[in-house]
Amino acid sequence: MEHTTTTIENGLIVEKNKTAYDTDKEAITAARKMNLKGKQIHKAVAYKCKVCGKWHIGRNKTLLTDKEIERYKKVSLQK
């Protein structure tokens, strides 16, 4: 079962398929990578879908801080 999300790209509303991850670790790793991108303002987080039981990435209303970005960089370098 595919889920979609609505985003705005170049001023246009775009419907995209959500990426589904089998484990929380996969989703958390992907969310951390998203948080390292320069344009990220709100923190990307992994969540378990109540519909399909897989893991997806969403954004919460928490602002991503420079301290968190530095922590994510250190974690990604250790792997």
How would you describe this structure to a colleague?
With 79 residues, the protein is an alpha+beta fold. The protein is built from 2 helices and 4 strands. The mean pLDDT is 85. 32% of the residues lie in helices and 35% in strands. The protein has one domain. A hairpin with a 6-residue loop joins β3 (42-48) and β4 (55-63). The protein has helices at residues 24-35, 66-78, and strands at residues 4-9, 12-17, 42-48, 55-63. The longest helix is centred in the C-terminal third of the chain and has 13 residues, at 66-78. The radius of gyration is 13 Å and the shape is globular. It has a two-stranded antiparallel ribbon. It has a two-stranded antiparallel sheet with strand order 3-4.
What is the helix content?
Answer: 25-40%
| Sheet having the most strands | 2 strands, antiparallel
What is the number of helices?
2
Uncertain parts: none
Give the strand line-up of the largest sheet.
Answer: 1-2
What distance lies between the first and last C-alpha atoms, to the nearest angstrom? 32 Å
Structural class by sheet pairing and helices: alpha+beta
Please name the defining characteristics of this protein.
single chain, 79 residues, alpha+beta, two-stranded antiparallel ribbon, 2 helices, 35% strand, globular
Q: How are the secondary structure elements laid out?
A:
Blueprint: E1 4-9, E2 12-17, H1 24-35, E3 42-48, E4 55-63, H2 66-78
Antiparallel strand pairs: 1-2, 3-4
